[in-house]
C-alpha cells in the first residue's frame, strides 16, 4: 500500500516537473531572446548618443626597445603586429591610404618612410596640412622643405615653447596620437605608445585642436 502511494506521488511530482519545465524552458528562452535584443538595441542607441564608436579601429601600439626582440625585419613591409616595424607599417599604411584629408601635427619630421607616406597621400590628391615645431626650419633633415616644395602647406610658430604634439588625423575619421616623433630612431630606440582610434568624440577633439593651431600658426618660410 505505502509503496504504491509513494510511486503515485513520485509520478505526480515528475509529471508536475515535466509539465512546468515544458512551459518554463521556452518561456525563459524567449524572454532571454527578447531582453537580449532589447539590451543590444539600447546599447547601440546609447553608443550612438555618446558617440562611442562601434569601432572600426581601436588600437594601442606599444613600440620601441621593449618589443625589439620580437622584430627580425629589415624592410618596411612587415605586417606582423608583434613587430616594431609591423606596427610602424600599420600607421604608415593609414597615412598612405587616407582618401580625403590628412592633418599632421608632429614635433619633428625627419623619417623618410613617414615623409614618403605623406607625399604619397598628397600626390594622389589628398588635402594634406602639416603643423610642426619651428625647429624644423633650422634642421636640414626635416621633411618640411620637401613638403613645401611639393606644395603641401606647413605651419609653425616662432615661440620659446615647443610644438610638442605628435598626432595625425586621417580623413577626419581616424586619429593617431602618441609619444612617437616618427623618426625611426624615435620609434625604435625609445619606449613609445601610440593610440589609434576612430571614436568620433575623440577624433573631433583632435580635429578641433588641429584647426585651432592651424589658425594661429603661420608659414614662416614664405
Ligand atoms: C580609402 O578608401 C579605400 C578604398 O575604398 C579603403 O580601402 C581605405 O580603407 C580608405 N582609407 C581609410 C583610411 O579609411
Ligand atoms: C597623446 O599621446 C601622448 C603620448 O602618449 C599623451 O601624453 C597625450 O596625453 C595624448 N593626448 C591625448 C589628448 O590623448
Ligand atoms: C623627437 O625628435 C627630436 C629631434 O630629432 C629629438 O630631439 C627628440 O628626442 C625626439 N623625441 C622622441 C620622443 O623621440
Ligand atoms: Zn617585422
Automatic annotation (TrEMBL):
GO terms for molecular function: RNA endonuclease activity producing 5'-phosphomonoesters, hydrolytic mechanism. Residues 159-182 form the PLD phosphodiesterase domain. It comes from the Eukaryota. Keywords: Hydrolase, Lipid degradation, Lipid metabolism, Membrane, Transmembrane, Transmembrane helix. Gene3D superfamilies: Endonuclease Chain A. The chain crosses the membrane at residues 13-35. InterPro entries: PLD-like_dom (IPR025202), PLD_domain (IPR051406), PLipase_D/transphosphatidylase (IPR001736). GO terms for cellular component: mitochondrion. One of its GO terms (biological process) is lipid catabolic process. PANTHER family: CARDIOLIPIN HYDROLASE (PTHR43856), MITOCHONDRIAL CARDIOLIPIN HYDROLASE (PTHR43856:SF1). Belongs to the phospholipase D family. MitoPLD/Zucchini subfamily. This is Mitochondrial cardiolipin hydrolase. It comes from Rhynocoris fuscipes.
Amino acid at each position: 500500500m505505502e509503496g504504491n502511494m509513494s510511486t503515485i506521488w513520485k509520478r505526480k511530482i515528475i509529471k508536475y516537473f515535466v509539465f512546468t519545465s515544458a512551459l518554463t524552458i521556452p518561456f525563459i528562452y524567449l524572454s532571454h531572446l527578447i531582453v537580449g535584443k532589447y539590451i543590444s538595441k539600447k546599447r547601440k542607441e546609447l553608443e550612438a548618443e555618446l558617440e562611442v564608436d562601434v569601432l572600426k579601429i581601436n588600437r594601442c601600439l606599444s613600440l620601441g626597445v621593449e618589443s625589439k626582440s620580437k622584430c627580425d625585419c629589415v624592410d618596411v613591409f612587415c605586417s606582423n603586429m608583434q613587430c616594431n616595424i609591423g606596427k610602424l607599417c600599420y600607421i604608415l599604411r593609414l597615412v598612405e591610404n587616407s582618401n580625403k584629408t590628412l592633418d599632421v601635427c608632429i614635433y619633428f619630421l625627419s623619417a623618410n618612410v613617414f615623409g614618403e607616406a605623406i607625399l604619397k597621400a598628397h600626390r594622389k590628391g589628398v588635402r594634406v596640412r602639416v603643423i610642426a615645431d619651428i625647429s624644423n626650419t633650422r634642421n636640414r633633415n626635416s621633411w618640411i622643405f620637401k613638403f613645401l616644395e611639393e606644395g603641401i602647406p606647413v605651419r609653425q610658430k616662432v615661440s620659446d615653447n615647443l610644438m610638442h604634439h605628435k598626432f595625425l588625423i586621417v580623413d577626419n575619421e581616424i586619429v593617431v596620437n602618441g609619444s612617437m616623433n616618427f623618426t625611426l630612431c624615435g620609434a625604435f630606440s625609445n619606449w613609445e605608445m601610440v593610440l589609434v582610434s576612430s571614436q568620433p568624440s575623440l577624433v573631433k577633439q583632435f580635429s578641433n585642436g588641429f584647426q585651432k593651431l592651424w589658425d594661429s600658426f603661420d608659414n614662416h618660410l614664405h
